[in-house]
Specification:
This protein has 506 residues and is of the alpha/beta class. Helices cover 36% and strands 21% of the residues. The longest helix has 19 residues. It binds NADPH dihydro-nicotinamide-adenine-dinucleotide phosphate and ligand LXAUTJHC. The site of NADPH dihydro-nicotinamide-adenine-dinucleotide phosphate has 21 residues, from helix 1. Its EC number is 1.1.1.49.
């Protein structure tokens, strides 16, 4: 929906002076503006505690847009138009008076327009503020239009199942479920969205998408960064909560879900919940068998020394928080029974890579047994980042006079087809402006995802059930993670497009 079809909207960013706003939110809004996706009439009410003049704040946004983002077609003229939409508002969430003043400002905007604008509240603040903001919005009548007012909530959404249930119940007192947009930015990534197009927009893959043909699935989200300046938050969270419960679990849902009857929010979210309900819960006594948790020690990445986790600022030097998790899940339904889903995620790994690898079963017949020692089973790799492609490996005849086989690859590369693919936050903010919640998490999805990891949380928190192992910064993770797969004759598969890329770049 381009801008002339959109209703006027007042966008209110709580935490506009924070890290997320400067790195992701303002650049995304600016890109949407440049591409003509923002409504004709909108205001970005930017709330923060620290005092700023309008000019200071707008310059700060401009500097960060230049530093942090890929602005596709920056123009001075467009920036000058956009900056007029940004209104810095000094705001203290703990003060009721701030909400009353904000209401006056929003009402003033409506009065100028001569119509009630849509209101989009973005809570880019610590989770401890969600309850206060939500209640004050309600009590002061800032969000009293069920059809026009929406709220975007950042992760983490709770810290376990009980807290997520309580948070959902609290939010339900102010907002209808359709007004609540729980963000998981992985769902906005281009190649994550593409999973549904790939699976359900083609006839050739879906018939093979089951335990008859698929041997195993791997989901990897590896980062080279450490905890940066978020040590305080991360140390209370760890990789299981920070990544597995949300991003990796959502990717699992996209890979494993049954076909939705329509590309429609309720239907798609129902199918995802079905997957989460089918994930086999790991018994407390089996946690060690299915999971590995680890912490990085000091090491080197790209020739630069990196601190160990325990020496990072904001981290307790005796911390028992994991920075790496590897685990095996089963989805106990007719389609997936017996297929292991391996997941791993870690900070300070040797390279950044988010990918899904679908390994198919070995060819059943023996036609070529005399000509090749080991046939390489077909493998489909969906690279989410930094590469963005889909890569199918298959056996082919080696060119020549005799019949020899070798593996080959077919690649669909997003960057070659569309170098300007939108950032995840652009997609998600646009959907929220348009009232499309398909790529956001519904309350039951969040709760079910917490339920999947509940026993692991309990076991790890109670100590001595599962030993914490270590891995040096800049490595590919702990040996124990390799052992987890070896037991079933598997190994971690890395980005299969790498050799091809290296050759192309050379
Ligand atoms: N940063 C990231 O990469 C990611 C962040 N998130 C989530 O996004 C949310 C925001 O994170 P982030 O931007 O990093 O946090 P920051 O700590 O950088 O920013 C916090 C913001 O909250 C504001 N704030 C704090 N107290 C008050 C108050 N009493 N009244 C009004 N405003 C207040 C701060 O204002 P001021 O600075 O003016 O005091 C600041 O704008 C968190 O829920 C986080 O978990 C999620 C994924 C990634
Ligand atoms: O939500 C989070 O995600 C980032 C990784 O996101 P990416 O888009 O850069 O892959 C992670 O670093 C952070 O710890 C986590 O909170």
């Amino acid at each position: 929906m381009k801008n002339n079809d959109k209703k006027p909207t007042s966008i209110v960013i709580f935490g506009a002076t924070g890290d997320l706003a400067k790195r992701k939110l303002f650049p995304a809004f600016f890109n949407l503006f440049l591409d003509g996706w923002m409504p004709e009439d909108f205001e970005l009410l930017s709330l923060g505690r620290t005092e700023h003049t309008q000019e200071e704040f707008r310059n700060y946004i401009l500097e960060n847009i230049n530093d942090f983002s890929r602005i596709k077609n920056f123009s001075e003229e467009k920036w000058n138009q956009f900056k007029e939409k940004i209104k810095f508002v000094r705001f203290d969430i703990t003060q009721e008076e701030s909400f009353i003043q904000l209401k006056n400002q929003l009402d003033g905007i409506d009065a100028k327009l001569g119509a009630r604008a849509n209101r989009l509240f973005y809570l880019s603040v610590a989770p401890s503020f969600i309850e206060k903001v939500s209640k004050s919005l309600k009590e002061n009548g800032l969000a009293n239009n069920m059809n026009q007012d929406r709220m975007i909530i950042e992760k983490p959404f709770g810290y376990d199942k009980d807290s997520a249930v309580a948070l959902n119940a609290m939010l339900a007192q102010t907002f209808k479920e359709e007004q609540i947009y729980r963000i998981d930015h992985y769902l906005g990534k281009e190649n994550v969205q593409n999973i549904l197009a790939f699976r359900f927009g083609n006839t050739i893959f879906e018939p093979l998408w089951n335990n008859k043909y698929i041997d195993s699935v791997q989901i990897t989200v590896a980062e080279t960064v450490g905890v940066e300046d978020r040590g305080g938050y991360y140390d209370g969270s760890g990789a299981l909560r920070d990544m597995i419960q949300n991003h990796l679990m959502q990717i699992l849902c996209m890979v494993a879900m049954e076909p939705p009857t329509a590309f429609e929010s309720t239907e798609i979210r129902n199918r995802k919940v079905d997957v989460l309900k089918s994930v086999r819960r790991i018994n407390l006594e089996d946690i060690n068998h299915y999971t590995v948790r680890a912490q990085y020690t000091e090491g080197e990445i790209d020739g630069k020394k990196k601190l160990g986790y325990l020496a990072e600022p904001g981290v307790n030097p005796n911390s028992n928080t994991e920075t790496y998790v590897a685990m095996k899940f089963y989805v106990d339904n007719e389609r997936w029974k017996g297929v292991p889903f391996y997941m791993r995620t870690g900070k300070r790994m040797s390279k950044k890579e988010s990918s899904i690898v679908i390994s198919f079963k070995e060819v059943p017949c023996t036609t070529f047994q005399d000509r090749i020692k080991k046939m390489q089973p077909n493998k489909l790799t969906i690279n989410i980042q930094p590469e963005m492609d889909i890569n199918l490996s298959f056996m082919t005849k080696k060119p020549g006079l005799d019949m020899k086989l070798k593996p080959a690859e077919m690649v669909f590369d997003y960057f070659e087809c569309a170098p300007d693919t939108p950032e995840a936050y652009e997609t998600l903010l646009l959907d929220a402006l348009d009232g499309d919640s398909t790529l956001f998490m519904r309350s039951d999805q969040v709760e079910e995802a917490w339920d999947v990891i509940a026993n692991i949380q309990t076991a790890w928190e109670n100590g001595n059930v599962s030993k914490m192992v270590t891995y040096p910064a800049g490595s590919s993770g702990p040996e124990a993670a390799d052992e987890l797969l070896k037991r079933q004759g598997h190994t971690w598969l890395s980005n299969s497009n790498e050799t091809l890329k290296t050759k192309k770049d050379a």
